[in-house]
Amino acid sequence: MWCEHLTRICCNGGVNSLVSDFNESEGVLLFANMKFMKLGSKPDTFHSDENNVRYVASELSTDVTVTVGDVKFYLHKFPLLSKSACLQKLVASGNEENNDEVQISDIPGGPAAFEICAKFCYGMTVTLNAYNVVAARCAAEYLGMYETIEKGNLIYKIDVFLNSSIFHSWKDSIIVLQTTKSVLPLSEELKVVGLCIDAIATRACIDVSKVDWSYTYNRRKLPEENGNDPNSNGFRSRPVPKDWWVEDLCELEIDLYKRVIMNIKTKGILSHEVIGEALKAYSYRRLPGFSKGVIHSGDVFKYRSMVDTIVWLLPAEKGSVSCSFLLKLLKAAIILDSGEMAQEQLVRRIGQQLEEASVNDLLIRAGEGEDVMYDVDMVQKMVKEFLMQNQNAGFESEENEVQEIRRPGILTDASKLMVAKLIDAYLAEISKDPNLPLAKFVDLAEMVSCISRPAHDGIYRAIDTFLKEHPGISKSDRKRICKLMDCKKLSVDACMHAVQNERLPLRVVVQVLFFEQVRATASSGSSTPDLPRGLKGLNIGSHGSSRSAATNPEEDWDAVATAEELKVLKGEIVALRTGNRIGGSERNGGDGRFSVDRAAISKMKGLLKSKRIFSKIWSSKGVQGENSGSDSSESLGSANPEEAKSTPSRNRRHSVS
């Protein structure tokens, strides 16, 4: 009868505030009729006074006092001893001294849980819900309220309640699991924790077609879900998402959350993307400041354990979580001083999907005591992991070539190009740090120099930013950093910026001017011829390693181009271009494309060998001295005020995006 009544109540009204009429049990009713015949009716509740005393209103005087914590219960022996093996022993052992007083200091759930058990013994109405059922179950276990003592005892009935109601309710299962922590380790020994975890995991893995829209209690329903949307026509237009359960599980502490996720993964039903989304939601909810890549002050040990656990729970499949989320986890792990193993695992995972990252994601603050602003070494490790995917694929392909071709770890040209552009942009950002060593910049840039890029505007922008923030670097260092750039691969806008850039060495400006002229006169405009033999000596070996470049004895070409030099060179190129357009077409009957190119190259050779241009350069240097890369054109001392006025200013220069 009780089970049917309980099932009916659960189905109609839920179990969040369930009232179970345990006194309808035949055994309890018989007991009530036998013991309280003099009263005309059995007691229905406990009363209390201002002295923390709980008692039963009855004409029958109490004969035992049970002290639980700081609360005293004045009760009757017979109803208690008839259902509790523990109280039988306690009363029996106290006969010699004082059998009217019993001390229970360590009962699970404290006075509230004991009161539930005592009410059951008296046959009173007991209110059980998801918040107190575990404490009541553990208290009943402590008091020994087994079936061997009396049929239909409290332990049996609570177990029926848990299995028939609580474990079938999504919300109540989560609440019950949270309450188990207050009664550990007994709740673990009674397998309540394990049963609750399995119930939650099972519910999370069911087919979404069987999930009702009341699936979560942490989400506000949309108008169409409540039937208030006039456009819904009474139908629910939104399907239940596969990750419907992730927000509710964020209520759990990390140790219980870990066990639930492990149980879900073990079942092998949900995809790794859904599990990854659950971990992401938990991180954003439980780690303060995580969304901004920081961790606010608090319990460092707690947050460190949380981050380490989330890293450990990450699905092994690539793409189960975003690269941005992995980088936020890495930043949190660094701030919280997590173990090297967790950080190495994150770096490895980030490297495998580095093409998804953004520059902001990669801006990892350097540790305390460091001179530099950002941790460039960590990014180098990520790039190394990214590039190693091809190497690993090459080693494995010897054993199984057919399957290796389909292996997702092999890098595509598109992903490599994305990473190259990402690192170029990252270098431009970190170059704003005046303390960034040149070696760190060059080493990171050279790691992606093997990746072919159609344009070198990104690395040019990074180089220009570095030179701007580090005006005092030597000629050799300036030459070394400029070798990272291929002048032939600069866009028109970048060339326009470079030919007016007073931070670049003179040889770089000459190369840019030459390639710009050749590109302007080439018929196709899609490819640029190599430097003529006469200019080979000026080639600074761009797009190559600075260690293998040949040394040019003409050190003056490595000096910074002055405003006067830029002006003269630009004027010569303009004159060269104008002359070629006129003479070339006349000499070749209107089609002088090939002759124009040859004329341009020949004229450029003469330009670079011309004593007139060299005398201008040398005289300019003699007046100004060697320029160390000042950022402002006004700092360039010019002998002619009119020439200084004509020098392009920084405000009018084209920025490279």
From TrEMBL:
Q: Where are the residues of the annotated region Disordered?
A: 523-555, 619-657
List the keywords (alphabetical). Ubl conjugation pathway
Is the keyword Transferase assigned to this protein? Answer: no
Q: In which pathway does it act?
A: Protein modification; protein ubiquitination
Q: Where is the BTB domain?
A: 62-130
Coiled-coil ranges per the record?
Answer: none
Q: Where is the composition biased (Low complexity)?
A: 625-638
| Keyword match DNA damage | no
NPH3 domain residues are: 243-519
Compositionally skewed regions (Polar residues) per UniProt: 542-551
> Belongs to which family?
Belongs to the NPH3 family.
> What is the protein's name according to its record?
BTB/POZ domain-containing protein NPY2
Organism of origin: Hibiscus sabdariffa (roselle)
